[in-house]
Structure formats: structure tokens, C-alpha cells
């Protein structure tokens, strides 16, 4: 037993008591609404707080560990002093890297940090630079996507808790892999959110996922500190190399210093302190270049951002899908325009939104590596009605074309787990809310949402059915056979080409040239002396480019001035003329 100082920000209740292993202790409040007490506690003591006369013991809003779930007492935890072997890790920026997004629960059959470690050598062999893990903060239930977290400082226990995360990050660094952690600061989940009992954590506004976080109203200073401290903790205590920040467009900040700018500044300070680069990658649908503009140039200073326009342009041009937000995409000309300019909607009318959207990117000052290009993310498959992947609807050649456009582009590239071998597993929306009413509402709401868009409600997977979760797990045995193995080899070769060719490292969009023919449905992306020629159509086509074949899905017939590509195929040529 040692003295331990407990503290909690709770300006709303008139009395707060500390419960340590079933014994209540008084706490003293200061003028800022913080309550403190120093008591003897075992290193792994269970504790919580009693507010006013309510007999319920609530978990610590800054809990490091929730061994019994988000509704129960917290447990003391400290980063292990001898648990790290990565003292020599120098880190690196994500700009220009290849990132691999994965969900811990479905990446492996075991669904834990430790079982994920067993697959890291595979990722190294693939050529991945960074692993981006979907949210690992504590949420209610045993399995879910993680975006309904309620205790942001704690690590989801079924994955292996905080000790498991330490082992995972350390193992990544030992193999030269950086780690990004997906952090959600725009809303809280519906089960286990006790924060409003402590203080004004929520604002009067709302977003598609519930009540908004209070980052600009009265009492916001401590809420902002709550967010900033949590973000920095992932990088300081868990050695993460950066964060993916979920849906930052839902962070409504009317203060003079936006919370993202504040986070950027404090992240840079921490990077200096740690002696290694730290990256912030924002998910945003605003198409606002100020997000990735340095702070000293009037921007918010994010390292990079997800770029859905690139995804939409590639996917719709290859697949032909035009429903919903794909409505303005699909043309080869639109794909060419997006590849050249980063954003397609840049002050232009968006049919899906019914208004003008976006702002032009200054391609002379902002490198393409500050935008992420991808053909698949958890959102783009999981938010489909039945969670079907492109591999379940497209030919393998079409998947190869999509891969070449993303990995051959000057943008920072990102893959979603299993796409590199055309995984047959869907990635469906799944949850495990323990409350029957919430479980029923989640399932019925999902069916109702897609039924309104013409889907048969009976076809929509029940997110609460454990089979929905199990179906979404990768089948690793399929990657080594047939077209799966062939596509995996093509991905490896593309990533190797991306690393080994100096022309592929040029980050400036002003140097990128894209030729295309709308009717013939071919497109050529020129990267210095290399040309990536794609046939988006099903029939063979002659493309006006020639040279030595460096890499191809189906071997083209190359003449003096043209290359004949088979249907749904791609070739990388080194121009000789």
C-alpha cells in the first residue's frame, strides 16, 4: 500500500467522495471544480467516485483501465517502466508512407493485441510503414467498431487492456512499423457515458452521432484540457507515433484558437520533447486546405487528412456506382481532375449536399503527401447496407486498377485490412450493447435507415447478432491461393515500386500529368519517366503511351507509340522516348 493522490474534475455535484476497494473517503474541492484526496491504495486498487447522495460508484473520467467494463469501478494503472524495448525507435512522419488500417477485433481470429502481433511480420513483408488501429478506447460491450467510446483514457479490456497495447506498439516499433491510434473526440457513446454527471462535457449542439462535446461554451476550458491530455497521452504513455482524428468537422469550435490548432501546437512540443516526429491525421469532409496548412501560415497544422474525393473518384470510375455521394463522380474526367488537384469539390456545386462545397488546394505550396489516397476504409465498406467489400462485386483486374491508382499516386497511401488479397469477408456494422432496449434500438435503426434507401430490411445484418461480428473477421488462409495470392503479389510489387523509384517520391501535384479518354475509358497517370496506364473498361484498348514494362496486371502489347491493354488491367511503363 502506498499513498496515491486521486483527483477528478466535478464542478456540478456539491459533494464528491472517493471509493477505494469499497471504502469511502472524503474529497476536498478547489476553486476550479477539482476534487482531491490522498489515500493509501494498492498498486491495482479498484476505485470510483460517489457524487452527492447517489450510492452508485462511478468510474473515473480519466480512468486508465476498466477491467470489468465501462459501468464498473476503475483500476489504477501506470505505464510499465520495464515494458518497453523501443528506446532506439527514431520514428518518422506519415507523409508519403503506406498506412494499413485495421480493427483489432476482426484482424485476427483471436481479436486481441497479442494475436495481432503475430501478423506484424506479414505487414512488414507487404511493405507497410504504419499501422492505424481503429479506436481502442473503452466502450460498452465486448465487441464493436469502437467509435462509441465513453472512457477515452482507458484501453478496451477484451483487446488486452493497456498492457496489451504497450506490447503491441512495442512489437510494431521492433519491426520498424509506426503506429497511429484512431481517436474519437466529437461525441460519446450511448452506454456508460457518466461524464455529464461530473461536469459540462456536452454542448447544446448535436451531430449525427448524438450530443456534441462542449469545446466552446461555458466550462469548456477543462473539457478542452480533457481532450488534449487524452490525445497527448496516447503518444506519450503508449508511444504512438500519431493519431487519426475522427470526423473533425463535427468539432464545432467558435473560439479564436481552434482546438485542432491547439492540439497541433502541443503535439509539436511533445515531439520535440520525445525527439521523434508525431503526426496528426484528420478525417474531414470539408475539403478545406486550411486544415493541413501550417499554423505559421494561418492553418490548423494537421499533418495530413483523409481525402474521400479521391476514394469516390477512383471507386465510382472503376465500379460504375453513382448512388448517394457518388453522384458527382464516375466520369474518367472527374477521376483525372481529382488526381491532379486533390479535391474534386473545391468551391463547386455538390449534388449530394445541394450546395457549393470545398475550397481549392494550393498545389504549389501544399504537397500531395498531406492527403491520404485509398480505395477502401472501414467507413466505405462498413457503412454500406450489407458491409460488402469491392472484392465481392468487382473483378480482380478492377481491384488491381484501383490499387495502382492509389499506390501509384503522389498521395500518402492507405490500405484497409485484407483489401490487398481481395478478402472475401465483409466488414459489417456490429455492436454488443448489453442493454436490451439500446440493442433493439440499434438494430431497428440500422434496418430502418437502409430500408428508406430501398434495401430489403431483412437483408440488413443485425449489428447485435454475434454472427455479424464473426462474419467480419479476416480469413487468412485464403490469401495464399489463386487470384487472392496474385493480387497480394501485385500489391507488394506496387509498394516496392513506390519505394524504389525516385519519380514516385515527387510530392508536387503541379508535376503530375494525367491523360485520359472518356469514351475509350482509359487513363494514364505520368510520374516523371513512369506512366501508369489503366484500362477502366472491360474491352481491350490502345493507350497512347509506350516504353518498357515495369509492372503489369496483364502483360500489355507495346508498340512504338501505343500500348494495348486488356480489359480491366493496368501497366506501369518506363517511357524511353
From TrEMBL:
Primary location class: cytoplasm
Marked site: Transition state stabilizer: 379
Pfam families: Alpha-amylase, DUF3459
Ranges where the record places region Disordered: 58-83
GO CC terms, sorted: cytoplasm
EC number(s) per entry: 3.2.1.141
Keyword terms: Carbohydrate metabolism, Cytoplasm, Glycosidase, Hydrolase
Domain of life per record: Bacteria
Positions with biased composition (Basic and acidic residues): 62-74
Gene Ontology BP annotations: trehalose biosynthetic process
Record's catalysed reaction(s): hydrolysis of (1->4)-alpha-D-glucosidic linkage in 4-alpha-D-[(1->4)-alpha-D-glucanosyl]n trehalose to yield trehalose and (1->4)-alpha-D-glucan
Amino acids binding substrate: 244-249, 308-312, 378-383
Signal peptide: none
Residues of the Glycosyl hydrolase family 13 catalytic domain: 101-498
InterPro entries documented for this protein: DUF3459, GH, GH13_cat_dom, Ig-like_fold, Ig_E-set, Trehalose_TreZ, Trehalose_TreZ_E-set_sf
GO molecular function, one term: 4-alpha-D-(1->4)-alpha-D-glucanotrehalose trehalohydrolase activity
Family listed: Belongs to the glycosyl hydrolase 13 family.
Cited NCBIfam families: trehalose_TreZ (TIGR02402)
Protein name as it appears in the record: Malto-oligosyltrehalose trehalohydrolase
Organism whose genome encodes this protein: Mycolicibacterium gilvum (strain PYR-GCK) (Mycobacterium gilvum (strain PYR-GCK))
Amino acid at each position: 500500500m502506498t499513498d496515491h493522490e486521486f483527483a477528478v474534475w466535478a464542478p456540478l455535484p456539491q459533494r464528491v467522495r472517493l471509493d477505494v476497494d469499497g471504502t469511502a473517503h472524503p474529497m476536498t474541492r478547489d476553486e476550479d471544480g477539482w476534487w482531491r484526496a490522498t489515500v493509501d491504495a494498492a498498486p491495482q486498487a479498484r476505485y470510483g467516485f460517489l457524487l452527492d447522495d447517489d450510492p452508485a460508484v462511478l468510474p473515473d473520467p480519466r480512468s486508465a483501465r476498466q477491467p470489468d467494463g465501462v459501468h464498473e469501478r476503475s483500476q489504477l494503472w501506470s505505464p510499465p517502466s520495464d515494458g518497453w524495448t523501443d528506446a532506439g525507435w527514431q520514428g518518422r512522419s506519415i507523409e508519403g508512407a503506406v498506412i494499413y488500417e485495421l480493427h483489432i477485433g476482426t484482424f485476427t481470429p483471436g481479436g486481441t493485441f497479442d494475436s495481432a502481433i503475430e501478423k506484424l511480420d506479414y505487414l512488414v513483408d507487404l511493405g507497410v510503414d504504419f499501422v492505424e488501429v481503429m479506436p481502442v478506447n473503452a466502450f460498452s460491450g465486448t465487441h464493436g467498431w469502437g467509435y462509441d467510446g465513453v472512457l477515452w483514457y482507458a484501453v478496451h479490456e477484451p483487446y488486452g487492456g493497456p498492457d496489451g497495447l504497450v506490447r503491441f506498439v512495442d512489437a510494431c516499433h521492433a519491426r520498424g512499423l509506426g503506429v497511429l491510434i484512431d481517436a474519437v473526440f466529437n461525441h460519446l457513446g450511448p452506454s456508460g457515458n457518466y461524464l455529464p454527471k461530473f461536469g459540462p462535457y456536452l454542448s447544446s449542439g448535436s451531430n449525427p452521432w448524438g450530443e456534441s462535446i462542449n469545446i466552446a461554451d461555458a466550462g469548456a476550458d477543462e473539457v478542452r484540457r480533457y481532450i488534449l491530455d487524452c490525445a497527448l497521452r496516447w503518444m506519450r504513455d503508449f508511444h504512438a507515433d500519431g493519431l487519426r482524428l475522427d470526423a473533425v468537422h463535427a468539432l464545432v469550435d467558435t473560439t479564436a484558437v481552434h482546438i485542432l490548432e491547439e492540439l497541433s501546437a502541443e503535439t509539436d512540443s511533445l515531439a520535440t520533447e520525445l525527439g521523434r516526429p508525431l503526426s496528426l491525421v484528420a478525417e474531414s469532409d470539408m475539403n478545406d486546405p486550411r486544415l493541413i496548412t501550417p499554423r505559421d501560415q494561418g492553418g490548423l497544422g494537421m499533418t495530413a487528412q483523409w481525402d474521400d474525393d479521391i476514394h469516390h473518384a477512383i471507386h465510382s470510375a472503376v465500379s460504375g456506382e453513382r448512388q448517394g455521394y457518388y453522384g458527382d463522380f464516375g466520369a474518367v474526367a472527374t477521376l483525372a481532375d481529382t488526381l491532379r488537384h486533390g479535391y474534386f469539390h473545391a468551391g463547386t456545386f455538390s449534388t449530394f449536399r445541394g450546395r457549393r462545397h470545398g475550397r481549392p488546394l494550393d498545389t504549389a505550396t501544399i504537397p500531395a503527401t498531406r492527403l491520404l489516397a485509398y480505395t477502401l476504409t472501414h467507413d466505405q465498406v462498413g457503412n454500406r447496407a450489407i458491409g460488402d467489400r469491392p472484392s465481392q462485386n468487382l473483378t480482380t483486374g478492377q481491384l488491381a486498377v484501383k490499387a495502382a491508382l492509389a499506390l501509384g499516386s503522389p498521395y500518402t497511401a492507405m490500405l484497409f485490412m485484407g483489401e490487398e488479397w481481395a478478402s472475401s469477408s465483409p466488414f459489417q456494422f456490429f455492436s454488443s450493447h448489453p442493454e436490451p432496449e439500446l440493442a433493439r434500438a440499434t438494430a431497428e435503426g440500422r434496418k430502418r435507415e437502409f430500408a428508406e434507401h430501398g434495401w430489403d430490411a431483412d437483408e440488413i445484418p443485425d449489428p447485435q447478432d454475434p454472427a455479424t461480428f464473426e462474419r467480419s473477421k479476416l480469413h487468412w488462409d485464403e490469401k495464399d491461393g489463386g487470384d487472392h495470392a496474385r493480387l497480394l503479389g501485385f500489391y507488394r510489387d506496387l509498394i516496392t515500386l513506390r519505394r524504389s523509384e525516385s519519380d514516385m517520391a515527387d510530392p508536387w501535384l503541379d508535376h503530375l500529368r494525367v491523360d485520359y479518354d472518356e469514351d475509350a475509358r482509359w487513363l494514364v497517370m505520368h510520374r516523371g519517366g513512369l506512366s501508369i496506364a489503366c484500362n477502366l473498361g472491360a474491352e481491350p484498348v490502345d493507350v497512347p503511351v509506350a516504353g518498357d514494362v515495369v509492372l503489369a496486371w496483364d502483360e500489355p502489347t507495346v508498340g512504338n507509340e501505343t500500348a494495348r491493354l486488356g480489359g480491366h488491367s493496368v501497366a506501369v511503363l518506363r517511357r524511353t522516348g
